[in-house]
Design a protein that fits this description.
The protein is α+β, with helices and mostly antiparallel strands and 144 residues long. It has helices at 12-38, 45-62, and strands at residues 64-69, 73-78, 83-89, 92-97, 100-106, 109-118, 121-128, 133-139.
């Protein structure tokens, strides 16, 4: 009399699949650990404020067709005809559209300085009231 086959075990294909999956997970583990080990959050809230300011200005510059450097800040002429002004206003940096409005981009600033190296490069520096200084280089993509 023949014994019935037991079908509760693993097949060779299933075991091979589990082995390959385990090896893939283990091989990617060093990369994940390295990313976690090198993660650096913002050390202060002001670092995050300055980074957000630079990110916002970068977005404005990407929409710009002409950039004008002024003693107080920058004027950006956008493709839809709007003139965006970003300048220091007291201890803040503000944004105005067509000379109207008053949108504060960052507070507690002692110095907001822009230098235009050429018509396509802008270097911006911000110094906070605590003495922290941040600098970023922006590039304006020329029209073709």
């Amino acid at each position: 009399m023949q014994k019935p086959m037991i079908k509760n075990g693993f097949t060779f294909i299933e075991a091979l699949f589990a082995l390959i999956l385990s090896l893939l997970i283990l091989s990617s583990l060093p990369f994940v650990v390295k990313q976690i080990a090198t993660y650096k959050p913002y050390s202060t809230l002001k670092d995050m404020d300055a980074n957000q300011l630079f990110h916002f200005i970068q977005d404005e510059i990407h929409k710009t067709i002409h950039l004008t450097h002024t003693p107080r800040g920058i004027d950006l002429l956008q493709s839809d005809g709007k003139r965006i002004t970003i300048e220091q206003y007291g201890s803040s940096v503000r944004r105005q559209v067509n000379g109207q409005g008053h949108e504060i981009l960052i507070h507690d600033v002692t110095d907001f300085h822009t230098v235009s190296e050429n018509e396509y490069i802008l270097v911006m520096s911000v110094t906070t009231t605590k003495g922290d200084s941040y600098e970023k280089v922006f590039s304006l993509i020329p029209e073709r």
